Amino acid sequence: MQPPPHCDPAPCSHRSPTPPVSFGSFVTVKPAPRDLDCLAVMATGFTTATLSSPVLEVFQHDLCRLYYHTDVFWVTEAVGKEHIDAMLQVFARDRHGLHQPIVEVQL
């Protein structure tokens, strides 16, 4: 498994004040998780139009899964807190409907 490309967040003008979260088997006691699941909330106005490879692949779900074994779900803050909270409620349940942890990632 290849690590995702490093992206220095300091110069990013669309960095959100909301930290990314990880969920799924990677943050559980599963002995060998096969992938990483993340939610990134980007600042309003963020677009992938100006990104280039390899960072662009992080925001393209199928390519990110293929190259990095990571499922990155992302939205901008423009969708509103209510919708972001609803997404977190979904991600807080596993495929059987049981509670699973969500871990906030500090950058």
What's the short version?
The chain contains three helices and four strands, in the order ββααβαβ.
Could you explain the architecture of this structure?
The protein is of the alpha+beta class. It is globular, with a radius of gyration of 14 Å. The protein is built from three helices and four strands. The longest helix has 11 residues, at 81-91. It has helices at 55-58, 61-68, 81-91; strands spanning 21-23, 36-42, 70-76, 102-104. Residues 7-11 have low confidence and may be disordered. It has one domain.
Overall SS class? alpha+beta
Widest sheet, order of strands: 3-2-1-4
What fraction strand? Answer: 15-25%
What is the global morphology? globular
State the helical fraction.
10-25%
**If helices are DSSP runs of H or I spanning 4 or more residues, what is the number of helices?**
3
How are the elements arranged and paired?
Blueprint: E1 21-23, E2 36-42, H1 55-58, H2 61-68, E3 70-76, H3 81-91, E4 102-104
Parallel strand pairs: 2-3
Antiparallel strand pairs: 1-2, 1-4
Any key phrases for this structure?
107 residues, single chain, 4 strands, four-stranded mixed β-sheet, alpha+beta, 3 helices
